[in-house]
Specification:
Order of helices and strands: HHEEEHEEHHEHHHE
Oligomer: single chain
Radius of gyration: 17 Å
Helix content: 25-40%
Number of strands: 7
Number of domains: 1
Distance between the termini: 9 Å
Strand order of the largest sheet: 6-3-5-4-7
Strand content: 15-25%
Length: 210
Amino acid sequence: MKLKKITKNRKYFKREIESQIQELSNRMSVSHPHEGSLEPKLYFMTVTFTESALITCPKKRLEYVRNTHEKFFMRLMGKAVKRYKKPKNRYRQPVSIDFYDFPGTKKGLGNTLKLPHTHSVLLIHPETIERFEEARSRDFDVHQDAELRSKIQSVDFQEIDTRDDLRNVVDYSSKFFRSPAPPYNDEHLHSLLYTCLGGEQASGEKFEQV
């Protein structure tokens, strides 16, 4: 799907993202003999990062945050799914749909001189919710990782309970992605403002540049 096309129309964009999330949710749902159909649990996750005055190039600043975010996600996945790399466990891996945002975009004044932060829709497989929640109560033991401890400023989770909640989260999370300020309106940099992380469940369609 063409990136410029999908971001041009706000309603169309949200509908496409919601459709992608619903497809992922359907794939991750399981049937239980006593409890019926179990669906993944959805969270709105926001990660902020510690500023670094040493990185001035916009592309390198974005890559710095992306790399840190992806490392954090891998840690989250390892805490949620034991032996998550084994083929038999991949279907239980969490999936994260991420948008990169900048301070101030809520007021239409995105400060691209600051490091971006991430807003994500996180899907947790129903068989791993208890393990995920237990790890979340310990902040995924981030304090044990010196690099993540120094680079991550905060991580916040809010449960997404209804379709309206999801619609509002997608709208809020993607505000900079839909209307990127220079230099992130460059085609290549724009494409880096969205990622879909996870195992086999995240193999769906991604947005393409024109």
